[in-house]
Structure formats: structure tokens, C-alpha cells
Predict the 3D structure of the following.
Amino acid sequence: MLNTVPLPPTPARPRLVLASGSPRRRQLLSDLGLEYEIRLREVDESFPANLRRAEIAEYLAAHKAAAYAPDLAAHEIVLTADTIVCLDDDVLNKPADEAEAVAMLQRLQGRAHEVYTGVCLLAADGRQVVFADETRVHFRPLSTAEIEHYVRHYQPFDKAGSYGAQDWIGMVAITRLEGSYFNVMGLPVHRVWQELAAFGLV
């Protein structure tokens, strides 16, 4: 009778968890052909006052990932992201209402500003990578009527800086981008793909 040696169990394939309610991030990952599970929870988005620009985006992404870490299964990797808009050193977050959205866009019109998206990939075994991508966005001068039209019809209250590059205002106002367009949408997919490959997900 031959002795048989049992084969070692096949390791579970890594599974991606997207911790974001952003429909734009979901669409970008889907367009990459990736499978993922969505998990959502409330996470405090405050940050230390001494941080600047890319540091803020990276801190927020890592902070969000840490909130999901205790619930990750052994083969899961969570992806978190946070996008901020900076004009000089001022961070323009999501507007609270229509008046604040109009005021933000009035500040941005006719000027260039920076968009930073911080990303964190955190595996259940503790492996982690945190990075941020920067895109410089140039706006042409806009009239008050154009700004009010955009805010009234597109209600960009869930968007940092009060605008979405993929919206009407992106078509009529953005004259030039230096960096990734997808980063402005909320996910630097070129870098995300590379890092996911390193984790064995692609």
C-alpha cells in the first residue's frame, strides 16, 4: 500500500475591501476589473493641526484603515482613501450648504489649486502602505451665474472643494491638469494598481 502525503491547503486568495461610500471610487475600481466588497462605518475625519497638504490626506486614509483593521479576515485587505482640495495652505473640505459651496468656488475660480488623494492599503497580517498623489488643477475665471448654476443643479455637497471634475463644471472650467485626472475624481488608480499587484490582488 502506498503512503500518501496530504497536500498543503491552498491559501485563500486575497480579497479587497473598499471602505468608501464614494460612487466614483467604486466605479474606478470596477473599471479596473477588480472584485471587491464594500464596508462602511462612521470614522472621525479630524486631523492634527500641524499637518499640511499631502500629510493630511495620508493621515486620514491611514486613520480610516485602522478603524477597519480589527474586523478584517485573515485574507482581506482594506482600501481607504481621502481626497482634499488645497488653495495655498487652506484645506477646502466638503461644503456644509449652498452658500459655502458658492464661496469655495468663488475662491477657486481663475486660479490653480492642488488636489491630494491619500490612500491606505492595510492587510489583516499588518502589512500596510500609505501614499498620496497630487494633481494641480487650473480653473478659468467663472461668473457668479456659472457658479450658482453648478451648485444649484449639481449640489456638490459631498465633494471636497465643492466640485467634481467629472461634472459640468469640470467641462467648462478646468483648463489644464498637471497630474492624474482620476486622482481628482478620488483615486489615483495608476498607483493603486501597482500597490494592489504587490499585495497579490492583481
Remarks:
- The first helix runs from residue 23 to 31.
- The helical segments are 23-31, 54-68, 98-108, 144-154, 168-173, 181-185, 189-198.
